[in-house]
């Protein structure tokens, strides 16, 4: 038997990220316009960069506490309270991570035993699925495509009943990647009513919270604090994806256990990046506003342009994605459409099938790029669609 046959068996059922693989493949096409990744096209604010430079110049290059710099945890706690009315003790209820990706991994690893189930409403960013499987868990999908891409409490209750002996957690992500749809206070209250008092964790990924377009983002951490583990960070709010600073917040006893996994994984997040994030949370609480306004302008151009071509779109109310249903003449294969669009029109979008049940027949279009590029992409797409009519 080969040595590779002795590796973790769950890995054999997984493959690398479809999104990253497709983005890499189409990047080889000359003159391609990529509307693929969730990467803000803005720069990190200058005052945040200067804070990191200052830390480097002062030789602040040593390990921090595993949970993160005390000043950063305090600033993050204040930010979450000021913005979303959640109360987290920075000493015991808040953990700084290497991005939300590490936060998701540490959280699921800390709560899952083999055979546990995690309820995942789809379409959704697929990260939660392989991490659940790597920990021996079973993803339980709830297709929200017929419900406006919102998890209805009746369907959640049915999924819990069907897996009553194994369900350990549900995942929420809002504003949602890939649809841009978000949850209202009423929506969250109804979900809370279903799980309140049950031995079920709510893992609430709210990384796009500052990019909510109408009304104020409501955190599940405010609605159901005793069962909710909140994930957030500075990647989208402050255009800091490459700095890799996220956070986990939740009940103190739960956070103590998650903190062990985090400690074993990375010891602590990068020191100067933590200093930068502290500056972002403390003195840049509204840094996302100019970006939010630009995204709204791009959305308001892109959505009607797509509808004019024959796409059906659930109008996004946050993040920076459009989830568009293919015009009838293209059938339902999102992969076939995305490949043809990339090679023939030189516009790259992500196939909807990669986001789980309910995603096939759609494509995700990121408008985290300049309006000029979006207009050129629309022009190319319109010509491509017309040619197939």
Characterization of this structure:
- The strands form three sheets. The protein has a seven-stranded mixed sheet with strand order 2-8-7-6-5-3-4, with helices on both faces. Strands 9-10-13-12 form a four-stranded antiparallel sheet.
- The chain has two domains: 3-43 and 288-388, Aspartate Aminotransferase, domain 1 (Alpha-Beta Complex), CATH 3.90.1150; 46-283, 3-Layer(aba) Sandwich (Aspartate Aminotransferase, domain 2).
- It contains 13 helices and 13 strands.
- It starts with 17 loop residues before the first helix and ends with a helix.
- The protein has 389 residues and is an alpha/beta fold.
Strand composition percent: 5-15%
Supply the helix-strand structural class. alpha/beta
From the alpha-carbon coordinates, what is the Rg to the nearest angstrom?
21 Å
Strand segment count: 13
The CATH topology assignment of the largest domain is Aspartate Aminotransferase, domain 2
Under CATH at level 1, the class of the largest domain stands as Alpha Beta
Under the CATH scheme, the architecture of the largest domain is: 3-Layer(aba) Sandwich
Q: Fraction of residues in helices?
A: 40-55%
Specify the biggest β-sheet: 7 strands, mixed
Instruction: Record the strand order, biggest sheet.
Output: 2-8-7-6-5-3-4
Domain Aminotransferase class I/classII large: 31-380
InterPro entries: Aminotransferase_I/II_large (IPR004839), AspAT/PAT-like (IPR050596), NHTrfase_class1_PyrdxlP-BS (IPR004838), PyrdxlP-dep_Trfase (IPR015424), PyrdxlP-dep_Trfase_major (IPR015421), PyrdxlP-dep_Trfase_small (IPR015422)
GO molecular function: transaminase activity
Keywords: Aminotransferase, Pyridoxal phosphate, Transferase
